[in-house]
Design a protein that fits this description.
Elements: E1 8-10, H1 19-35, E2 38-42, H2 48-62, H3 66-69, E3 83-85, H4 99-105, E4 113-118, H5 138-163, E5 181-187, H6 192-197, E6 203-206, E7 212-217, E8 223-226, E9 234-236, E10 244-248, H7 250-255, E11 265-267, E12 272-273, E13 278-279, E14 282-289, E15 296-297, E16 315-316, H8 317-328
Parallel strand pairs: 1-2
Antiparallel strand pairs: 2-10, 3-4, 4-5, 5-14, 6-11, 7-10, 7-14, 8-9, 8-11, 12-13, 15-16
Helix pairs in contact: 1-5, 2-5
Length: 330
């Protein structure tokens, strides 16, 4: 891959295609993750109608009052990544763990609010839900969409395994508990002056923590990906209706001994309303895929040799994610 574009991969033949077709799709995924770290997928099994309904529920939730949303507030413990986080609660930091440095970075808050939920059947991390009377059926649809994403995540894990020449179920065997996270994000209108002067930010350049992320984004735009051929230069990854954007996470990059690339990306200011001087509202819905918390992982077979030894010691997914999340919510 030589062009500065995010590749698009059609998953239509992955479910019922031949072994050769499934392996071809897997190799396309691995090639994109190796050289770009980002890809679009289409014909993946989650209908555009279901995607649009999830956006409608997200908008309804964020229109609740602060008092209503505070009934499901994110706990102080950053590693318990569930519930509602008000604007400025979270600050995305890139591999910074020193508390004084994090406090300095937090002086420029991320202008966004979020709601996070995980597998309701996995009791390791309890979910926090708004009051049923405040937003009836919200919980039920979130759980429905979460299950759709879980099914698709297993498909992507199988594609990656096939593309790397591994047994098809090698990676799914480390993701049996579906210890994943669905996040609803709302970027409210923000002053142009604050964004230009750096008083506030959308989301600064960062990488994601886990195995990979599946992102549903609206038509507002703003997602940018660092060019694989020009460090520091970011290219746009606009919405393609019906598609999902997938990007490699830091944990998978480490797991693959740095073969698969976890790429910096950011959210910039969306279009400005010339009459108000405020940015346009933006919604996005990422689904973060993570390995089972207690699984100890080492470099994937085929990613290391005597000439290219293992770069990292073994680590559990739980320990790695807790380290990264605690820095984000310090």
């Amino acid at each position: 891959m030589t062009s500065d574009t995010v590749p698009l991969i059609d998953f239509a033949k992955f479910d019922d295609g031949s072994v050769e077709e499934r392996r071809r799709i897997g190799k396309q995924v691995v090639d994109a993750m190796t050289h770009v770290g980002f890809l679009y997928i289409i014909n993946h099994g989650i209908s555009q109608q279901d995607q649009e309904r999830m956006f409608q529920w997200s908008e309804t939730f964020f229109k609740l009052s602060e008092e209503q949303k505070s009934k499901c507030s994110h706990p102080e413990n950053g590693a318990h990544h569930r519930g509602w986080s008000h604007v400025g609660r979270e600050k995305v930091v890139q591999m910074v763990f020193d508390k004084s440095q994090i406090e300095e970075l937090r002086k420029k808050p991320d202008v966004k609010e979020s709601f996070d939920m995980g597998n309701e059947e996995n009791k390791e991390l309890a979910n926090f839900w708004p009051d049923q009377d405040d937003i009836p059926a919200f919980k039920e649809y979130c759980l429905y969409y979460y299950k759709l994403c879980t099914v698709l995540s297993k498909k992507v894990l199988r594609a990656i395994a096939l593309g790397m020449g591994l047994d098809e179920e090698f990676l799914t065997s480390y993701h049996t508990k579906s210890n994943n996270q669905l996040r609803l994000l709302h970027y409210p209108p923000t002053s142009t002056a604050d964004l230009k002067t750096g008083k506030s930010e959308r989301i600064a350049a960062h990488t994601d923590f886990g195995t990979f992320t599946m992102l549903l984004q609206d038509q507002c735009g703003g997602l940018q990906v660092e060019s694989p051929h020009d460090k520091g230069h970011f290219i746009s990854a606009p919405c393609i209706p019906g598609s999902l954007v997938i990007n490699t996470g830091d944990f998978l990059m480490r797991w693959s001994n740095d073969k698969l690339k976890s790429t910096l990306h950011r959210v910039t200011a969306p279009p400005i309303d010339s009459q108000t001087g405020m940015s346009k509202v933006r919604y996005s819905i990422p689904y973060f895929v993570a390995a089972d918390r207690d699984e100890l992982v080492d470099a994937l077979p085929g990613t290391f040799t005597e000439e290219n030894p293992k770069k990292y010691p073994p680590i559990t997914s739980g320990d790695y994610l807790a380290m990264r999340l605690n820095a984000t919510y310090t």
